Amino acid sequence: MGRLAGSSSQFIRAAMRAPYLERGEEHDLAVRWAEKRDQAALHQLAASHMRLVIAIASRFRNFGLPSGDLIQEGHVGLLEAAARFEPAREVRFATYATWWIRASIQDYILRNWSIVRGGTSSSQKALFFNLRRLRARLAQSSDPRPRALVFAEIAKAIGVSRADVELMDSRLSGPDASLNAPVRESEGSSDRQDFLVDRVPLPDEMVTEAIDGERRRIWLRSALTVLSERELRIVNERRLQDEGTTLEALGESLGISKERVRQIENRALAKLREALLRDHPDQATFV
């Protein structure tokens, strides 16, 4: 660890000693790399901008990731900027590279800050990297505000919903916790996962329900044979569809009043119940 820290310090010092480039010299190096793929030109261009990488990486030191890793990712972004830079646009390379360096570091943080993958949209990234700063700024106000109001103001400033702010705040409030970790630091303590409730039925319950459901469908199909054609239509459209037809609509279709439809429906249901109890007297609860 000591050697690693030392080499990192030496690297930073070497980056800081790299000479600044004049605009014309920077342009010539960029042209040599873009047109001739001159590796020496790329190396000099990148080395002269490593202090920029280090400066940007230092802004993200509070996310708990090694500074060396942040600098390395920033260097990846710097090389990506060099690969895409167009000297003819007359823009300083540092101006162009800043976006790529910052984006590379931010992507690295989002991938490694938590084992739970967060949102990757531009608004979610903005929320992740600005929430703590905005929350601290609002907290310093002389006028204390309710938590809900603070979240609402942050949501408006970033352009996300308040629910998104609340969810991100809860994620940033604590580290990841393993479900295999014990609840208490004592021998024989239960793991966190032991207290998770699975609401899905057990396999034997699912099989039983499937068998019983099929048996009851057979009983119902048999009982429906006791109904007249009109009774069968009313029961089918009123009771056996996902969205039952209204009494009024069914009455118009049959050319009778909705009250008459109600009477026929009640009579048909009574006949069904009687038929089911006759054939399956032990299933009174189901009927």
What does this structure look like?
By secondary structure, the chain is mainly alpha-helical. The protein has 3 domains: 10-112, Four Helix Bundle (Hemerythrin (Met), subunit A); 122-172; 203-283, Winged helix-like DNA-binding domain superfamily/Winged helix DNA-binding domain (Arc Repressor Mutant, subunit A, Orthogonal Bundle). The chain is built from 13 helices and no strands. It has helices spanning 2-17, 23-36, 39-47, 50-58, 67-84, 93-112, 122-139, 147-158, 162-172, 203-223, 229-239, 247-254, 258-279. Helix 11 crosses helix 13 (258-279) and helix 12 packs across helix 13 (258-279). It starts with a helix and ends in an 8-residue tail after the last helix.
Brief summary of the model shown:
This protein has 287 residues and is mostly helical. It has three domains: 10-112, Four Helix Bundle (Hemerythrin (Met), subunit A) (Up-down Bundle), CATH 1.20.120.1810; 122-172; 203-283, Arc Repressor Mutant, subunit A, CATH 1.10.10.
Which short descriptors sum up this protein?
about 290 residues; mainly alpha; Four Helix Bundle (Hemerythrin (Met), subunit A); Arc Repressor Mutant, subunit A; 3 domains; 13 helices; about 65% helix; disordered N terminus
